[in-house]
Amino acid sequence: MKLLYQAWGANELYDWAVAVAIMGGVVLALVVLKYAAGRIVTAVAKRTATRIDDILAQAIGATRIWLLLPLAVYAGASALSLPRKLEHLVDIVVVVALMLQVALWINRFVRGWLELQIEKRRGVDGEGVTALTLVSFGARVLVWALALLLILDHLGFDITALVAGLGIGGVAVALAVQNILGDLFASLSIILDKPFIIGDFVVVGDLRGTVENIGIKTTRVRSLDGELIVFSNADLLKSRIRNFKRMQERRIAFSVGVTYQTPLEKLAGMPQILREAVERQDGTRFDRAHFKGYGDFALQFEIVYYVLSPDFNVYMDVQQAINVEIYRRFTEEGIEFAYPTQTVFVQGGAVPAAPPVAEQRHAG
Question: The pTM is what?
Answer without folding.
Answer: 0.48
